[in-house]
Request: fold
Amino acid sequence: MAQATSLPRNETGIATAIGSLKQQFGDRLTTGQAIREQHGHTTTWIENQPPDAVVFPQSTEEVSDIVRICAAHKVPVIPFGVGTSLEGHVNAPAGGISVDMGQMNEILAVDAGDLTCTVQPGVTREKLNTFLRDQGLFFPIDPGANATLGGMTATRASGTNAVRYGTMKDNVISLQVVMADGEIIKTARRAKKSSAGYDLTRLMVGSEGTLGLMTEITLRLQGIPEAMSAARCSFETVDDACQAVMATIQYGIPVARIELLDALAVKAANAYSKLDLPETVLLLLEFHGSESGVAEQAELFGQIAQDFGSTGFEWTSSTEERNRLWQARHDLYWATLQLRPGSKALATDVCVPISRLADCAREAVAKAEELGLMSPLVGHVGDGNMHMAPLVDMDNPDEVARTEQYVSWLAELAISMDGTCTGEHGIGQGKRPYLTRELGATMRYMAAIKAALDPDDILNPGKILPD
Amino acid sequence: MAQATSLPRNETGIATAIGSLKQQFGDRLTTGQAIREQHGHTTTWIENQPPDAVVFPQSTEEVSDIVRICAAHKVPVIPFGVGTSLEGHVNAPAGGISVDMGQMNEILAVDAGDLTCTVQPGVTREKLNTFLRDQGLFFPIDPGANATLGGMTATRASGTNAVRYGTMKDNVISLQVVMADGEIIKTARRAKKSSAGYDLTRLMVGSEGTLGLMTEITLRLQGIPEAMSAARCSFETVDDACQAVMATIQYGIPVARIELLDALAVKAANAYSKLDLPETVLLLLEFHGSESGVAEQAELFGQIAQDFGSTGFEWTSSTEERNRLWQARHDLYWATLQLRPGSKALATDVCVPISRLADCAREAVAKAEELGLMSPLVGHVGDGNMHMAPLVDMDNPDEVARTEQYVSWLAELAISMDGTCTGEHGIGQGKRPYLTRELGATMRYMAAIKAALDPDDILNPGKILPD
Reply:
């Protein structure tokens, strides 16, 4: 596909760098094909472009050594978490060295009194939350997949809890970063607020490995709420559900999660997760707060939902039932693939101002039908973020072409509504054409920053910026 | 003072640029001394370095024209809001053109359904909130002074409400910016979330006019809470009060404001604002939420405060009484100056992880006493942000020297606690030495970004970065 064009390779440099790295890392550097292919693999339809070698550092100093060696020979360096990205972020279009952070997976500090922790980039979100639970703390950002915190930081991830707790940009306090010249820096101190110069923390969050390799991440934590409850209700149309979401947000109810599934997505969830939800448009919610606060929120929401014709409003504070529903939501990617075995899903990721959400969803569903695409709709609708995920038969060139047409059309639609082509997945390889459409002349200054911080373009080349 | 060293002036370029600007702007360009001096003036002890001319644009295109003319002649451009900054941000150490945004003061759009608005940079926070009130909305960031939103964005301001609503970094959605070459860009679309490339919005927020001139600011708004109540209580020691704050934050009570005043600050407030608060350490709080939520929060806080020996806990939902207390808090800068008529106040601005707040406050008060400085303490303590504000007789060189020693010592103390020399005021001219102490090698990459985006260093030179 077009998205996976190759870039010129520096064969001599790559061979020399691999030789040097082999000397230092021994068995922790591999050039075996299976491992290389796995490190070009993401949850996507974009073709695999494996790196030339994969190295497994165990410390910040080792990451710095790797970058210095690669910088000396102008060889690409591609950081790797667990490969849950959706836009080909870990592909190696110019070859080079994949830096697998899997062995840098220590939780370095939990400062419960400050509601902060510091982790290495290979720690996964589930590992962190399991570790924190006994202290009554949690890290709220939840993209669904059990991604690493390094990967989540690199893509500015968010997910189901963002409507209340924000995205990675709101929850990273400071970073330790290995820069393109191998220098190790801290972007900020551990204070909650700072006006200390340029916000390099936020510049690194979402930079997808193209400006530096994060080696320590200091995160903001939350106390586990006194009470949590889940609710669900059904609507006849996507439009009605979106109107209810808009009213809920505008009313100021501090929902922790508010997710939409269309009838097709519900059908997939029922089949995959053995549920018996009504197979029509569904909103799934979660409320966090005190016992009385949670009840108040659920009641208010119930009234709003009813105003928009919802049926079957149910809420529960049972942990087991709550977890079952959210597990089904998390498994939706896999569930929808089962709607059409053998297909690939192309997860789009537009995000629009919430007042345009109903329009966006309605038009997106109609266009998919018009193009004859089977496409479930799920969305973090409280933020105006929705995923149409066409299920594509990759052996059918006409269908692939219609899907590409759809993805491009949808990005344009969101942009025409003052929205973005990506609310949380990032640009990677797949969304580069749309980013330029979205931001125009702004791209020149992004390119200037990239050139200033990585003059030889060794850090994850071929991502975010146009070639 | 050392902070206000001059930089080399480009006399020919300045004269030529003023000539060109005069042609285009006529009476909206002035070189009169009084206006120039006013535009170098900030609320600070740093000496005045007036620009060579002040120009008053009325549109983004005019700002672009100004920057293009100045860029062509390599002449400094210094954006100006209303001059409430505390660190000499609007001084012109190399001369140049002050761009007064006062005539760009339109509220361009309020999208109530999206909880966003777009304003020109010269709109003040009070003007915006007055405009929003009828729609049941407000913009929460409140640095005390009636600053412009352009200035607040440029310094990454925060203030009393930040403990609940975050700082400017959390509340700016996108920016229109005139870059150093005169190009007009948008940093992002109006969607609430985005993973669309480098976060230029956050890079611009807090860049103090050194990377671009903001000409439109899209902000996140909040619904006015159903209920608000204020509370106050007194403590024997700063330490007890800080311990109560730490416990409140750790407990997760969503206080909207939690401010500390030491006995000296309370004395100043009583005298200036005609109050009769007990003249000992005071915490002032505000709670936002539903009627029952607000009562619940106040009760929980009251219990915690009592555990740390507080006395005189009172809470009120009377709007009048609430406003009287917060007006007194906002007037504190002027009130403390009256403690020692003729003195200047040097507002320090350290911010530390909250677990270190009590230590920081205790040591800071003791050191001020040791150095014989009269220094009230106020703080946005819920964020670990505190201001010691020594009142200095500028005609007493020994006292000035002791104050400089104190300010430097306090920055080091905060840094040693993994905190920052500035929680919200920014770096400007005054804090440049401490920023380098705080971030070390990181400064090199800030300088690289500055050089990439403003290669001739025309945008507010002599600020943030070392010479």
